[in-house]
Specification:
2 strands; single chain; two-stranded parallel ribbon; globular; mainly alpha
Length: 165
């Protein structure tokens, strides 16, 4: 879509006709990750200023969805999957297989563009870490987190998420 690349422009700054033209001309790819794993990652990267994961989760829950940081805000409120028809949804933990398929679909060579992914190691590590961190939370925190991310859990196949139960 022809546009001036002088500054970063948010989609909401365009009129509906321009938005439809842009979205129709792009291949739209959405990268998604289990919301509980996003929380763990944010906490591990130091964005959680609390000493424990449970305290960090309590801060997240207390902030509410409207005041939430983009690091842990529900994905459906960030990417609007019900409004934008994404061509591909790529799940964290399956990057190598899904990105290879995506690159082949758009006609790009996969062998030279893809870095070495360790998807199985990442899945195992996050599975173990999720189990440890989840055990730190109270039943009420677990229930509130499941409610906080209910639309993400309904929109994407996070079947092995600790929040799905």
């Amino acid at each position: 879509y022809p546009q001036q690349h002088t500054r970063e422009t948010k989609l909401g700054e365009y009129n509906l006709t321009e938005i439809e033209a842009m979205l129709g001309s792009y291949t739209k790819v959405l990268f998604v990750r289990d919301p509980f794993q996003r929380l763990i990652s944010t906490f591990m990267q130091g964005m959680g200023s609390r000493p424990s994961f449970s305290s960090f989760v309590q801060d997240v829950l207390d902030s509410g969805q409207h005041n939430a940081s983009t690091a842990w805000k529900p994905l459906v409120s960030l990417c609007r999957p019900c409004l934008v028809q994404y061509d591909y949804v790529v799940m964290f933990g399956f990057l190598r297989q899904e990105l290879g398929h995506l690159l082949r679909r758009v006609g790009l060579p996969t062998d030279t563009l893809l870095p070495k992914f360790t998807d199985s190691q990442a899945r195992w590590t996050y599975s173990w870490l999720s189990e440890q961190m989840f055990s730190e939370l109270s039943l009420q925190q677990k229930q509130r987190l499941s409610h906080f991310y209910r639309w993400d859990l309904a929109a994407f196949p996070f079947s092995s998420s600790f929040l799905s139960d």
